[in-house]
Predict the structure of Nucleoside diphosphate kinase.
Amino acid sequence: DVRERTLIAVKPDGVQRRLVGQIIQRFEQRGFKLVGMKMLQAPEDLLSQHYSELRMKPFYPSLLRYMSSGPVVVMVWEGHNVVQTSRAMVGHTNPVEALPGTIRGDFSIHVSRNVVHASDSPDGAQREIQLWFQGKELLKWDCCDQTNTCE
Ligand code: DAT
Ligand code: MG
């Protein structure tokens, strides 16, 4: 499905470390289409919904503190198998397991500062996109080059 979408976020450490451009570049060069993007300092209630599955984990309070500590850049990327492919591009949750060449494998060393978020399933992606974006913030546009991987 070429219309599959996923939510990618540059976390506060990624913004602080000026990694936003390099992260966007990786998704553009892979062939995905950017259909929404914004920068915000995420409110706690949004983050608690975003990470609701993790609320019983011991690291949950510090996760929310970190994620609300500064601005994040949230994006919606679209394309064939974008959910699974972007998880591979982002790499393992724990940077010690993340392969070189992945975003986490190239830019991070600790699980609590792993630079980037990516939805982990198509259903999860849909839920997260609705949480972070209003429908009108997502743009429908055509690639001028019909032979590229967007269409
Ligand atoms: P992912 O971000 O790869 O989807 P996740 O959904 O299991 O991983 O966890 C969300 C975030 O929570 C993760 O990116 C970083 C943080 N986290 C996960 N496990 C952790 C741990 N053992 N200690 C500290 N932070 C952790
Ligand atoms: Mg996750």
In short: The helical segments are 12-16, 20-30, 44-50, 60-67, 82-90, 103-107, 122-132. Residues 54, 59, 63, 93, 111-112, 114, 117, 120 surround 2'-deoxyadenosine-5'-diphosphate (ligand 1) (CB under 6 Å). The longest strand covers residues 33-40. The chain has a mean pLDDT of 95.
